[in-house]
Design a protein that fits this description.
The protein is of the alpha/beta class. It has eleven helices and 20 strands. Helices cover 30% and strands 22% of the residues. An eight-stranded parallel barrel has the order 6-7-8-9-10-12-13-14, surrounded by seven helices. The radius of gyration is 25 Å and the shape is elongated.
Length: 396
């Protein structure tokens, strides 16, 4: 008996002139049946669906692009991989092999970095809560300690007294770089004098030595010039510290927050056109520092903690269609086996959704739902896709 053919309903296709209009990009969809030369079908057959896949090749390429962009424009640069962005051992190990230090924000992340062989002097310890035990361990092992609030400063003074030596530390500064809302919950505010007061308290305590300043503007910062403003403010603050307290700042940590090429839900332009390049971020930061008197003689070390800009484009989620329906407004609805519990970034990204097999159907407005019994489980609320059936694969 011949196999039953799928019914294809009549479809009126809207023709759109040009590649982009106010509704977004024209639906140019090509199947993605392999990832780095390995077929999607074989990956699912071996590991099941849904399945996360990360490209080691892309991880290394992105890191090298970022490192080159900054190294060509500033003489002393060091990247530290942000463990909170992705703390899988394999991912962290790739970046460490490429030369990245570790940036951690918890005792668990600190222990993970040490377990991967990262020495204390190559770990930046950030975050508003660091346990007493982990602070002491980090101090003993020579990690970069970034003070978030005064109570943490007092903790470190006690640890320094117990160890019988001064501890080198940095303070985290929050500042207005033209990005709103300002992330003011972390560190000491620069504009209202709180940061200067923290430095005064630190130097007067005589148990800690200030060696660095750290700021982190936020996440997915699309304005590269905001980093120029932040770098200028940090450099000026470092000069005032040297003048008023006699302490020479040895490094500036500009944090992370560089945008990846993903497209945000509210964006008109696709991410690859809207997001600054590594070169643009490097020009903004390096230009500001090189224009400052702070870099005379021995320029301070520039630390960077970029996360998603290095990893976003390396990751895929393979998923399988498990059902479909026609919605009340006439659009097609697809049900897949991966929901927002796995693709959580669907709440702020327009995730690319690509069929993993060849197709010859017209594209149609489609809503993609996950398997959760929750109304918010929407992976894409509108995307043009061909007619897909249970068992077909998609790559997010």
């Amino acid at each position: 008996m011949a196999a039953k053919k799928h019914y294809e309903k009549p479809l009126i296709e809207r023709q759109v002139a040009g590649l982009i209009n106010k509704f977004g990009r024209r639906g140019l969809v090509r199947p993605m049946d392999e990832i780095d030369g390995v077929s999607v079908a074989s990956l699912v057959q071996r590991h099941g669906s849904p399945l996360f896949v990360l490209s080691e090749k892309t991880l290394r390429q992105k890191y090298r692009q970022a490192r080159q962009a900054f190294s060509l424009q500033y003489p002393r640069v060091q990247f530290a991989w942000s463990y909170k962005t992705n703390h899988l051992n394999a991912v962290c190990a790739v970046f460490h092999q490429e030369g990245a230090w570790a940036e951690v924000v918890s005792e668990a992340e600190y222990e993970r970095a040490r377990g991967l062989g990262v020495p204390g002097p190559q770990i930046i310890y950030n975050g508003p809560y660091k346990s007493q035990q982990s602070l002491k361990q980090a101090a003993e092992e020579g990690a970069f300690l970034h003070i978030d609030h005064l109570d943490e400063m007092f903790q470190l003074e006690k640890i320094a007294a117990d160890l019988g030596r001064k501890l080198p530390v940095a303070i985290r500064v929050n500042l207005d770089a033209g990005i709103y809302p300002v992330w003011s919950r972390f560190g000491f505010n620069l504009e209202n004098g709180e940061a200067a007061h923290a430095v005064r308290r630190l130097t007067s305590g005589r148990r800690l030595t200030l060696r660095g300043l750290h700021t982190h503007l936020g996440t997915f910062i699309l304005d590269a010039d905001a980093y120029r403003r932040a770098a200028l403010k940090l450099a000026d603050f470092a000069l005032s510290i040297e003048k008023d307290f006699g302490a020479r700042v040895q490094y500036l940590d500009l944090g992370g927050g560089f945008a990846s090429a993903n497209t945000l839900l509210e964006q008109y332009l696709p991410g690859e056109h809207a997001s600054p390049t590594f070169e643009q971020y490097a020009t903004a930061i390096s230009g500001a520092l090189l224009d400052s008197p702070l870099v005379r003689g021995q320029p301070p070390l520039l630390l960077l903690e970029t996360g998603r800009a290095l990893v976003d484009e390396a990751g895929c989620l393979i998923t399988t269609v498990v059902g479909k329906r026609t919605l009340a407004d006439g659009r097609r609805g697809l049900i897949i086996d991966a929901g927002v519990n796995l693709a959580f970034t669907a709440f702020w990204y327009k995730l690319d959704v690509i069929p993993a097999q060849a197709f010859d159907h017209f594209l149609e407005d489609t809503v993609i739902y996950g398997p959760l019994c929750m109304n918010i489980d929407v992976v894409r609320d509108n995307i043009r896709l061909p007619d897909l059936h249970p068992g077909d694969r998609l790559v997010l």
